[in-house]
Amino acid sequence: MSDVSDWWRTSIIEMEPGKISFRGYPVEELIGNVSFPQMIWLMTRGDLPDENQAALFQAALVAAVDHGPQAPSIAAARMAVTCGLPLNGAMASAVNFLDDVHGGAGEQAVELYHMIDAAGGPEHTAEILARWQEKRTKFIPGFGHRFHKPVDPRSPRLLGLVDEAAAKGVVSGRFAAIGRAIERTLAETKGKAVPMNIDGATAVIYAELGFPAPLARGLFCLSRSVGVISHAWEQMGQGGRNKGPTPPSYRWTYDGPPRVPGRIAPKDNQ
Amino acid sequence: MSDVSDWWRTSIIEMEPGKISFRGYPVEELIGNVSFPQMIWLMTRGDLPDENQAALFQAALVAAVDHGPQAPSIAAARMAVTCGLPLNGAMASAVNFLDDVHGGAGEQAVELYHMIDAAGGPEHTAEILARWQEKRTKFIPGFGHRFHKPVDPRSPRLLGLVDEAAAKGVVSGRFAAIGRAIERTLAETKGKAVPMNIDGATAVIYAELGFPAPLARGLFCLSRSVGVISHAWEQMGQGGRNKGPTPPSYRWTYDGPPRVPGRIAPKDNQ
Amino acid sequence: MSDVSDWWRTSIIEMEPGKISFRGYPVEELIGNVSFPQMIWLMTRGDLPDENQAALFQAALVAAVDHGPQAPSIAAARMAVTCGLPLNGAMASAVNFLDDVHGGAGEQAVELYHMIDAAGGPEHTAEILARWQEKRTKFIPGFGHRFHKPVDPRSPRLLGLVDEAAAKGVVSGRFAAIGRAIERTLAETKGKAVPMNIDGATAVIYAELGFPAPLARGLFCLSRSVGVISHAWEQMGQGGRNKGPTPPSYRWTYDGPPRVPGRIAPKDNQ
Amino acid sequence: MSDVSDWWRTSIIEMEPGKISFRGYPVEELIGNVSFPQMIWLMTRGDLPDENQAALFQAALVAAVDHGPQAPSIAAARMAVTCGLPLNGAMASAVNFLDDVHGGAGEQAVELYHMIDAAGGPEHTAEILARWQEKRTKFIPGFGHRFHKPVDPRSPRLLGLVDEAAAKGVVSGRFAAIGRAIERTLAETKGKAVPMNIDGATAVIYAELGFPAPLARGLFCLSRSVGVISHAWEQMGQGGRNKGPTPPSYRWTYDGPPRVPGRIAPKDNQ
């Protein structure tokens, strides 16, 4: 019997009839006594953050909830409910979209910060950026925004909170320094501002608080799910059936071969 | 141009370059000043809850994060990462599972409470339960648990918090009364305890706070996603490739027709 | 050990090292000797269709592969790959959208045909349509098209193949008669043509061939997946990152409360 | 208006009211005259295969439909329907699992074959295998099977069909030669048989027929979806609610910190 139970072993949750504990804490003591962000931290990491850590953590969760219906994830959520999906299905569809390109920048930014940190800190920024572009991709994750120019309004606010936390000794501040070094280096290299965006700023917070890179993506998914549910629910109220991406009258441009009837010989005995 | 923009109209988010606001609140004022549960409330409903409302709300979010790897959603998340999916894909797969049976009980319980409330309150419980079973399903959503006997440890704790909130005038307490009336009625009818479970208890909170029924499902998805990400992340650490539901040595019982070779005539000219 | 194996019991596939059989047929005898549509039939139903049945079956599968990028499923597939998802993720996202409204009409049409058939056949059409609209929904599944007016080009072709098959004794033709009776009845009731669409026509075929209603949805998902993969793959070639539903310059119409800064009191010690 | 239509441009499908064509072929001429595999080929590639190409192609589609409920994808499909999901949701959940590890081997094998072909053919196998293991992963995609020893029954049958097609001039046979060279090289290197598995064998076919590597994954998803739907449908018949991975009596092994009550100070005013 133990091989079957062992197949699903976990250190997260312990259960017997009438008893549930998470990471060793009885559930009835967590309920009402820890905040939702503290619970997210406990579940993903195994320990409880203090109030200051939790406050900085939740600032990142608050910041990334939504970026409007032109984001593919939000559009997907809104279309999904008009296809008949309930909120779980709409949320699943939207979160699935938060892959490498749409939802991976935060994770990649934490990786990049860790690389710079491991190399010795901000003065190694240019060298690590070059290595990133050579080995990974030309996109520097977490910097630049095609829409919010010159500044993404969320980033300076989040960095300001990191500075406050660093001043209080809650975090070290060294990943904020790394983030700012990237911003400076990119501005010099490109000759124009390539400011830190929401992914770069939340990645600073996740790195400061000690979250490993892949969890940055998971936490972004949690955060963006709030917008997803809100938009899906609003769309349910607006109604619609099989909502497509554009009003039906627009259709799409066809650029394939011309319609030529009569090229297929009918089968004799199908 | 306006028909295209109108196709995606929303009252949730307003944006121009360098400016984002949610429900009329500038994002940089929300970050650092509202809690994550307050943000969830603002996004889904349009207004900000006070601290007491937010505290009760977050108790429900904390309570439902996980029920272990025998829950299909959690098992799915753990299997998913061993198939190569990143955390967004694991979360999408798991949340998709939170459909009518696995994740719909909270939504249905809110509906049931509203029906009893609309009928005049707790004294109409038996009558409405009978109607529910006739029109909807024999399962009374939110009550009974195949594992937690005699009591689901989360429910009395959550109801206690509702009572405290009612005593302070934060909520009316009438949905707690309805929930308890269902519990009493079921005990009388069945001759044994059918105690309120996590879905019934969180539904009391969501109903007390004025959330419409479908959002109860959405909020459960948000809450359970915390466990999903935690288990998926733990599984990434454990490793494994193509993790199946049981250790490979077990295989499955085959109960179909016997293997009979030689029944298909080879095609001549395929 | 047997309770674990029994938990996953199936009559579809039998396996031991070096041996695989489906429904009793050795896999190496199926490969190269049965067509893909025959295999789909065998797997879902347990027996092999003859060539005539398979030919009619595959006409339905061929007919429903795609309806262009304004269909939410196809749009989702195209957006998905620009978010970083590989083809499996794009296909999953798209197929998830084929729910009650977008992908359920075929299943519902088979149900409706069965109701009319059980009531005694075409002469009971008006009565059953009324009951459907009273008990289920005002939409008559499988009839009418907002775009293809006056005729969906796939339907008469598919019905013609059913007629040929009925003439040869492959099928009875009674569900084609029911489908045409619905078309006539709707034309009389509404005073205008409400022609059978692709879902109504494929449902005739699935009903004629004896597929239960829920499989009609599954088969539609299989068929539409062909278009899904094709569009996702084409989009990969076109490139793009985070493709939204409309060109970025359009944005959306905001119809919520005006942006009012300064309403949130900063927290003292968060 | 054209920028909106251009945003969704495609060369796959052309539509106007009452007219649909795919790759230039009117839909009503395709229905009943081309097989489902031919349609899959036309949609993904733009041209119609002849009967011999289509026959080889469909052998690959037939071969990969299912590998039993211990495959995570199939287990997911079966669990999904017990959570309340319809067949589209079950299929979406399962196909999502067919990612790099579970569904990517065919795609990777095509890539590997192309690398060997580009290097000059079978005699460069050892060198390219070494490069693959250095640059990509230690797993050689498409070879070895933890269950089917010594031989995967599908592979020799599929290779036999490739040989027949090569003898008729339908394909060149050079990717079959490459596949066999890999098998020989691995046997020599490892000192034991590491036979070609289903992914390696279907990859030979897809490479012979000219499908680009990523489509090998998409085609595997299509093929495996047949098993997915079959198992989901069978599970619907078996019933069950919230089917977990093991019988409920097994639970899981907990290996985390011990349960210690009393460590969280209740909040004063939450």
TrEMBL record, chains A, B, C, D:
Molecular function via GO:
lyase activity
Keyword Chloroplast assigned to the entry: answer is no
Name of one Pfam family that matches = Citrate_synt
Q: Where is this region: Disordered?
A: 236-270
Q: What is the lineage of its organism?
A: Bacteria, Pseudomonadati, Pseudomonadota, Alphaproteobacteria, Rhodospirillales
Origin superkingdom = Bacteria
- What is the protein name given in its UniProt record? citrate synthase (unknown stereospecificity)
Q: In which pathway does it act?
A: Carbohydrate metabolism; tricarboxylic acid cycle; isocitrate from oxaloacetate: step 1/2
Q: What class of enzyme is it?
A: transferase
What family name appears in the similarity comment? Belongs to the citrate synthase family.
In terms of SUPFAM superfamilies, this protein maps to: Citrate synthase (SSF48256)
Keyword entries, A-Z: Lyase, Transferase
Q: EC annotation?
A: 2.3.3.16
